[in-house]
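FAQ: What does the model actually see?

It sees only this:
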Amino acid sequence: MSILNKFIKNNFQKPYILVCSSKTHMMYAKDILDKNIVSNELIPTPKGFGEICTTAIKFDFKDKKEIENLIKKSKIEYKGIYSLDNRYRYDLSSVLEMNISDDMKKIINKVQNNEDISKKDVLYLLNRETEEEYNALITTADIIRKECVGDRIELRAAVEFSNYCIKNCNYCGLRKDSKQHRYRMSEEEILEEVDYLYKIGIKTVILQSGEDPFYTTDKLLNIIKSIKEKYRMGITLSVGERTEKEYRLFSEAGVNNYLLKIETYSKRLFDYIHPDDDLDTRVQHTTWIKEAGMRVGSGGMIGLPTQTLEEIADVILFQRDFGVHMIGFGPFLPAKGTPYENYSKSDLKLNLKVVAITRIICQNVFIPATTAIASLNSLGQTLALEAGANTIMLISTPKALRENYGIYSNKNMVDLDFAIQSTLDSKRKLPKYLNYSYIEELGYKIDNSIK
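And it is asked to produce this:
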């Protein structure tokens, strides 16, 4: 049995979804269905059935009456039960009028009718080289992005609080054998950065580090609880593989999202880039994160040494089939002092295709214009926003430490100035929740057109 079939793939002949009124009721419903052995899986709520980055429970029509009885008996509050045959339809007539091949039109028609596209279709889109068909792909993704998440970007910020790591990933500058200067931030130092983010209006902070056992469960829980009690901010945690119990404790403490990239869904390539990791284990951890009630952040690296287009297609489709909420695809960039330091960096156009295809097949999710794509090309972030991305992640690590968090070399430090310019260049809007008066007091100039 394949990894996907073993962990996450249910064969729903007539798929339906249950949309609950809150995360608490959703998790309660999930627990009840599991205890009653009713096949189900958690997925991002599709467009037309609920808000972006919320979670629905997918099941088969044959179990509909039993589920209705169970949730009524358990007094679960829910918004509705819906057939996925009634999925949102997109108007892509402008794309179909472009000078594209009949095969391309067939795929666009599938997307317009909100039908799942196949691996063969994804490979076809990855291979598009003519200007007209590339533009058709980007335009399709942009239309879906606008329909699903609108024109306002989501702005988040990362505090990279430790660059120690016990793993030896061949592509990563933080790997255990790296000779770079190491650092760890104290809880007080972390909270000082969070305080700044709170003042400028950021709603979600990303706490990110290498896999560093120095930060025990209790230490992380103390930081999480301090942020929740003082600032009531959303928290994304990205600290590598932890235990099933820890994921549940993090969720109970208020962690909203957990970022654990799969990087590739090819066992061959996963083994090649991760000498001390295992693909089955990574998928199991991602499953535990979802079952703990946190939104799953995943994604992959594009342009890795020896990576094929078929392997890229597989990792894109994994995001859809697993039901990932936040999908970050970034380019491979070589890091000094790693086994891959002399390999060529990734191709910008290929990365933009991947962003576009991900938006087309995953739709109602968060997709960042990554720091890595901004490092690959100075216009990369703007172009990614135009290709379907809707999120920018600021770097809020103290300036004295930033250069030491070198996952790859020549990192572009995406600060507020850079994010503002990318938003302006892509003709998008900044989030309403920012504290513009405070930001302008700090000396930033913000064009009124993007507020």
